[in-house]
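Before relying on records like the one below, remember that each one covers exactly one chain. Contacts with other chains, cofactors or solvent are not represented anywhere in the record.
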Amino acid sequence: MKNYIKFSLLLSFAILGGAVQAAKAEISELKCHVELLGGEEIIHFVNAKKNDGQNMINKLTGKSITVIGSRKKQKIYRVKECTDLHGSFKASQANQLDAATVR
């Protein structure tokens, strides 16, 4: 009987640990309104961990990305705003740019 209780406790901790690990690794899709070096503004799409969404501005600033219509990578000068893939931006200019962006 004692072994059964120990085994059930061990199994419940293993299941809980797996659930916590799965929640940490959950990926969300974000879209960010960014300004490239040179002044061009685009919408950049990013896959990130759920809890990294707020830090995405710091992570993307200075990063080189591939831009549609250009063979060279271009550096992100400034990230203006990031939001959920299906959400809307606070700035109207970003929403207009998002509507014109091909997915």
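The longest helix spans residues 2-24.
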